[in-house]
Amino acid sequence: MNDAVKQSMTNTSTWTRGLYMVLFAFIYSLTEAVVVFICLFQFIFSLARGETNDRLLSFSKEICEFMLQILQYETFNTEYKPFPFNPWPEINQAEVSDNNETTTEKTDNEVENLEAEEAIEGEVISASDQEEEEK
Fold first, then answer.
1. Which of 65, 45, 67, 70 is nearest to 55 (CA)?
2. Burial of 70 (0-12, 13-18, 19+ CB in 10 A)
3. What are the distances in angstroms from CA 25 to CA 14, 19, 35, 38, 67?
4. Of 60, 33, 34, 32, nearest to 46 (Cα)?
5. Residue 64, Cβ neighbours under 10 Å: how many?
6. pTM for this entry
7. pLDDT by residue for the chain (135 residues), tens digit each?
8. Phi-psi bin for 76: left (phi > 0), alpha (psi -120 to 50), beta?
9. Rounded to 5 degrees, what are φ and ψ at 121?
């Protein structure tokens, strides 16, 4: 066996990471179940009240960030170990409260951009092209 392969196989940090990966895969599976319950509860709350629960929305964003951290660690995109080895991801409450307004504004802006693009037909003529045509 090649010395580099042998050294790699006996590297304790790689095996330790493997154990963490198994632990986080289990935690990720549990978190998926929590997300299903959040979705169901948010849907029922939305039906009953006609709006979403801001606290639950904030918690669901934190759960999504936590799951992203797990996936990044699992796929070797980062060495940052997610919660409980590091702090729980926190989301700014103002971002959650403004969520619906921001989405609407983006949608309105996107519609305006699409309408502007549809209004422009034919070739785009630059200022230098116009000067050449005038001569």
1. 45
2. buried
3. 16, 10, 15, 20, 10
4. 60
5. 15
6. 0.63
7. 678 888 878 888 889 999 999 999 999 999 999 999 999 999 999 999 989 989 999 999 999 999 999 999 999 999 999 988 888 888 876 665 555 544 444 455 555 555 544 544 444 455 555 555 555
8. left
9. -125, 155
Q: Give the residue ranges of DSSP H helices in the chain.
A: 3-9, 12-49, 54-74, 93-97, 99-119, 127-134
Amino acid identity, position 128: S
The CA dihedral of 122, 126, 127, 133, to the nearest 10 degrees, is: -60
Please give the structure tokens belonging to residue 125.
């003529």
Q: Which two tokens stand for residue 96?
A: 């959650």
DSSP character for 130? H
Q: Contact 59/38 with Cβ under 8 angstroms?
A: yes
How many Å separate Cα 68 from the centre of its chain? 7
